[in-house]
Amino acid sequence: MLLSAQDSLLLIVDAQERLLPAIHQRDIVTSRMRWLGEIAMQLDVPILITEQYPKGLGYTVSSLQEIIEAGRVVEKTHFSALKEQTFRDVLSEYNKKHIVVMGMETHVCVMQTAIDMQNAGYQVFLPSDTVGSRRPTDKECAIERMRNSGVEIITSEMAAFEWLEKSGTDTFRHISRNWLK
């Protein structure tokens, strides 16, 4: 199944300041998150952001500030965002069936949220270059487990091209000018 911008919501899970220093390849992960978030904004794909106990872990990383301002932030304490009533209420307002999930840590909050959402009937897509964990083996095992649970494993470029659908449009020309970020 291919993504559709009209049917999609971009979910950023717990990309928080105090987690970031320990994340393997954090600069690559945050760069790809920012890039896909900027494309989502240009294509009017709604953005929902979770923060796990921000008093302890800090707020969403400042490099995503523009995306934070365009999105909606929901605090949580459960590892799976879907276990939070506030999150479920906000999510239902969007009425989207394709959920593109990115964030930290892949093997904890990202995985538990993605699997719960898949089991709840959402079609979940995980751009593997937009998620991070402290240890590469945790990330790899979590991606495999999500794949086995029906989550579609993709890349940020796959998501962008599927959302765009075709070249030759003003939106495509605007986005493609900065394609190789």
UniProtKB/TrEMBL annotation:
One MF annotation (Gene Ontology) recorded for this entry: hydrolase activity
Entry keyword annotation includes Hydrolase: yes
Pfam families named among the record's database cross-references: Isochorismatase (PF00857)
Entry keywords, A to Z: Hydrolase
Isochorismatase-like domain span: 8-157
Record-linked CDD domains: YcaC_related
Origin superkingdom: Bacteria
Protein name per UniProt: Hydrolase
Protein species of origin: Idiomarina piscisalsi
